[in-house]
Amino acid sequence: MTFRSIRGTKDILPAETARWQFVESTIRTVFHRFNYKEIRTPIFEQTSLFARSIGELTDIVGKEMYTFTDRSDDSLTLRPEGTASVIRAYIQNNLGEAQPLVKVYYIGPMFRQERPQAGRLRQFHQFGAEAIGSPQPEVDAEIIAMTIQIYRELSLTEFSLKINSVGCEKCRPHYKEVLRSELRKIASQLSPDSQRRIEENPMRVLDSKDENDQKATASMPLITEHLCPECSQHFDDVKKYLKNLGIPFLVDGRLVRGLDYYTKTAFELTSTALGSQDALAGGGRYDLLTRELGGKETPGVGFAAGVERLMMVLDKKGMTREVDIKPTLFIAAADEASRDWTITAITNLRAKGIAAESDSLRRSLKAQMREADRQQAAYVIVVGQHELETGKASMKNMRTGQQQEVVLNDIAAHFPTSGT
Ligand code: AMP
Fold first, then answer.
1. Average per-residue pLDDT in the chain?
2. Do 277 and 118 meet the contact criterion of CB atoms below 8 Å apart?
3. Which of 166, 255, 384, 416 is deepest in the core (most CB within 10 A)?
4. How many whole angstroms from 243 Cα to the centroid of ligand 1?
5. What pTM did the predictor assign?
6. How far is the CA of 257 from the centre of ligand 1 (A)?
7. Which residues' Cβ are closer than 6 Å to ligand 1?
8. Is residue 160 classed exposed, middle or buried when 0-12, 13-18 and 19+ CB atoms within 10 A define those classes?
């Protein structure tokens, strides 16, 4: 019997991980620069956490979650996104007590049972951040600016930013009623999905990807015309800050995004370098979420972005910069005694912080030299009977071809060390 990975999951192979590490370290650098600290939450949670936060009627909760019952009959779910877990951890650990504004980020796998296609996986990776504790629009702008800075840092500039305000408890219910009654009038022209959503979540109808739906709803009232003064002011301020920061954006009154917890600002970043799944990142404000999950009412704003989608764009652009792992020194051994010496020598060198390697397949000297070449070792030493007797060997710089004599007991002196 042979085993294969689960549909919609992917191995990230050794040849790719160096690029992942480079991208992840760039992401972390930007987060740290903006003073966000990492948070790591479990990858599974009580199912009700996600149902409560993301919303029972969303696609994610309704049909995409990996939910299972464990041996204690508890319903658990592999996290489909990061915000719900972060807010749960924020409440549970009283993170707000130590400081009024908590700024955290995460990078890790998420799980959704969607139909796999290019850029859409069932286990994928997101990086994201949450700023919990401030209702102010400058934090919305900071989250957007930070998202964009990550892409810029990786030399990606071809994306577009759409923003909207989805209102709040005060103005959204009224707008939804206005929209619902208008949508009912054109219901017969809409797709079955959109017809169902008229009653469940009318704002999602405007966000439909179906072309007919888009045509039929072209003249529907938009939330941006129905915001209360507070939401309207907040939205104006976010736009002002984005302008001040020189960040181009488009206001899209139809943007709602597939998670129910947003209030006020919602945004999405798309890239034309991607196919039909063109969303790079999305986010927004969620001032009611903490209360909804049983905590004290605390405003928050955040974003999440797909790592695989970012990788796809980097691939398209031919980005090859990476931190590859290569040995600094390869020691080739000519006989058994030299091999015994080499095993001890590379272990001691590694303890001193030097990336040293040797051949563990007991191959011929010629094959060992080929291996050192293949691994792009920076320096090579060949050790045989003569070297062991004299305690000296010749070390070759593989880039320049230059040779220099080294004392076998003191190889480390030739390298900058980072260990003890
Ligand atoms: P969301 O949590 O749905 O707002 O998604 C945020 C970002 O995660 C999207 O913009 C995508 O880049 C990425 N993403 C969401 N779902 C998937 C998926 N099934 N496969 C790969 N990336 C995804």
1. 95
2. yes
3. 166
4. 27
5. 0.92
6. 11
7. 81, 112, 114, 119-121, 124, 126, 258, 279-282, 304-306, 308-309
8. middle
